[in-house]
Amino acid sequence: MKNWIGALALAAFAVSAPFGAKAEDKIKLKMAEVVRSQFYIPMYVALAKGFVADEGLEVEMVTTNAGDRTGALVLSGQADFGLAGPEVPIYIYNGESDDKPVIFCALTATDGLFFVSRKKIHKFDWSMVNGKKVLGWRPGSTPELYLEYVLKKHGVDEATVKSIVTNVAPPARDGAWLSGMGDFGIFNEPNLTKLEKEGVANFVASVGKEVGRADYTVFFAKKSWLAKNGAAAQKWTNAIARAQAWVKTADTKDIAEAISPYFPALPMDDNIAVVNRYRNIGVGIWAESTVMDKAGLAKAQEIMVVGGVLPADKIVAYEKLVTTDYALKAQAKLTQ
User: In what order do the strands lie in the sheet with 134-135?
Assistant: First the structure.
C-alpha cells in the first residue's frame, strides 16, 4: 500500500487535451481521466453536446494512462478532480494523506473491457485459458482485479492467474499483442475494434457481464477541494446526469457522431460499431444515475479483497468514501 502511495507522489504529467468553448466568465477546471475510451461515453457526450458549457464550465482533460497518475494529479492539486476506478480513492483513503478523497459522481456500472483470444474459438470454455499466456493490466488496477476475479470465478488454475502479464503500459499493449504476446488478453475500446480489423483479436467474453454490477469508474476529488468548489462539482455532476439521460434514448449513430471529436483517428463506422458493442453486450455498462450504487461499491471492494490488494479490515464504508449530495441534486434537476 505504501509503495502505491509513493508511486502517486512520483507520477509524471500526461499529455493534456483541452476541449469546450472558451469564455472569460466560465469556471475553468482540470480533470484527469485514466484512459481515453468510449467506455466513458456519457462524459464525452456531456462535453460534446454542450451540457458542460451550459453549466458555465470550461474543462481541460488530461489523459494519464494510469490510475496512480490520476490520483497523483488530484492529490498534488494539479488536477481539480479525477476519473478512475474506485480503487484509486480507496488506496488514497487508506494511505497517509489527511486530505481524504471523496467520490461525488458515478459514471460506469461495471467493467468495460473484453476478454479476447488470438485464435478464433467457436465454442469457448474457460478451461481453455489454463496454461496459456494472458495479457492483463497494471497490478492493482480495476482492469486487472476484475479480470483475475472472473478467471478465479470460472476455476482457471492459480498458476495461470499468477502468470498474467501485468508489466506492459496501456499505450504499449496493442503493440505487444501485435508482436505476439499473449494467447488471451483484455482490451477496451477503441483498441479492440482496431485489433479485430487487423485480424489478430477475437471477442470471447465481456468481463463486465461476467462480474455484474460493480462500480468501475467514478469522479472523485479531495475533501478540501469539494469544500471550496462545491458549486463547480455540482455543475459537473448536473452535466453528467443530463448526458446519462440523453444516452439512454439516443440513436447509436447520434452517440457515435457526438463523441467522434474525442476519437479523431477512428472511422465513423468503427465508432458506431463500438457504441453498439457497449449497448448490446448484455449488461448495463454505464451508470444510469450519478448516484454511486452502494452494492456496486461493496462488490468492487470484494473484488479488491479477492485480488489481495485490500485487507478485509481496510474496506472503506460507503458513507466515508462517497457523498451523494451532488448526485441527488443532479438527478432532481432532471425532473424540473
Answer: 134-135, 184-187, 114-117, 202-206
